[in-house]
Amino acid sequence: MSDIFIRNAWFDTLFATDGLYWMGQNTNHLPPHPEVLAALNRSVARAEFNAYAPPLGFESLRKAIVADAGLDGVEAMVTDGGVNALSMICRARCRPGTSFVTTDPSWKWPCQFAEQMGSMVIQIPIWRAETRYRLTPDALAAAVDDRTAIIYLVDPNNPLGVSYSEQELAAFIAIARRHNALLVHDCTYRDFAAEHAAALGLDQQHVVMSVSFSKWLGLAGLRVGALIASRELLAELAPFNSGVLGASVVAQRAAEAGLKVKASWMATLRAIDARNKDRIAAAVAAIPGLALPVFPSGGNFLVIEVSEAGVRPEALVECYLRRGIQIRQGAYHTATFGDRFVKVSTSVPEPWAETFSALLPEMVEQARKLTDFRQPF
Predict the structure, then answer these.
(1) Is 45 left (phi over 0), alpha (psi -120 to 50) or beta?
(2) Out of 190, 204, 237, 335, which residue is the most buried by the measure of CB atoms under 10 Å away?
(3) How much is the average pLDDT of 81-97?
(4) Which range of residues forms the domain containing residue 350?
């Protein structure tokens, strides 16, 4: 059977598992805000889903997204999740003979989109304590040349959680300008970072920004995100959107309602997320061989390094799954460093994080001995 069918069956089984603790996809599983539920219910009750949305998204939502980003002189385009915005950019800019430069680890799907368009993908290793697990301007400059179409930066990084300062972003932008490359600033996790700078606020000619409502607002299954760019760049990129009939009407209503209550919602969410991270960090510190290479993480997740504990990430994933908890193996993000770590989501109900932490010693011991396990996706 082809991997695509095996992978689908795998996730279908997970989705059908009652009471599963979703702690591997960086999704938000806290109860939704009442205003968001009300917006969803109103939209469904009015049967708004019978009609297509405007191709760039509802004007009110587009304006709200720009306002939330805190930027002037730019436009927003609503997309079927942040991933569709990234696919559109790759379709527009990547061609045979060009390169797509990103980090290792990074988020895998834009790399695949670039390869599909014929670009050569160059991944710069950042799993290095000496650089604090982050991309440096020198490393980026060495990988970028006049063939580079896109520099793709996930900030905070998925999965490591490192975030970049305005000074670092300015250095990356200077490299993009020098080679007329497009810096794609994927800000999916920006709302969880203690501080976050928008590269688009420094340059609107060589930078675009992607955002998502999957993580902070918990709308992963509704599929809504956005691309933010100058009017000129958006006009260039929008024709390459595969979702030419607009994003989900119902999802857009939920997104707009979420933006209206974002300040209070994020205060609650970030407090829970921080407590969950502290619980997991304490559990990790108590087990020899385990480590958190980046703490605190700027995303709603933690990377736990397991290689020094004699544990295979896939074995630990299997042990937790047998107890109804889904976490993710490092190989999902990187072939080079995937045998070193697992990733655990933290924007989840506190009892989930408590259970994960309490089980960690037992799960590590079981994983050390486990040789027969399913290959996760």
Answers:
(1) alpha
(2) 190
(3) 97
(4) 3-32+262-369
**Over the stretch 288-338, which tens digit does the pLDDT of each residue have?**
999 999 999 999 999 999 999 999 999 999 999 999 999 999 999 999 999
Q: Could you give the CA distance from residue 181 to residue 281 in angstroms, rounded to a whole number?
A: 39
The pLDDT of residue 357 is 98
Same domain, 347 and 316: yes
Do 10 and 155 lie in a common domain?
no
DSSP-assigned letter for residue 291: B
User: Is 375 a member of any domain?
Assistant: no
| Domain CATH number, residue 245 | 3.40.640.10
Q: Hey, what amino acid is at 43?
A: S
| Same domain, residue pair 9 and 24 | yes
Give the CA count within 13 Å in the CB-facing half-sphere of 25.
19
Contact in structure between 68 and 217 (CB atoms under 8 Å): no
What is the rounded distance in angstroms from the CA atom of residue 368 to the CA atom of residue 296? 27
- Asked, for residue 197, whether it belongs to a domain, the answer is yes
Q: Is the pLDDT of residue 1 over 80?
A: no
pTM: 0.97
